[in-house]
Amino acid sequence: MVAPQFHHLAGRVWICPGDPDPEAVQAGVAVVVDKRGSVMIDAGQSPAHAREIQVALAAAGLPQPRWLVYTHHHWDHVWGACAWPGVEIVGHEAAVPLLRAEAARPWSHHYLDEQVRANPRLGPSFRARARAVDSWEDFAVLPPTRTFTDADELPVGVGLRHVGGRHAPDSTVVLVPDSGVMVLGDCFYPPPAHLRRPEDGLDLGLVRRLLHDDYHWYVSSHAEPMTAEQARSAVEDA
Question: What pTM value is reported for the model?
Answer without folding.
Answer: 0.96
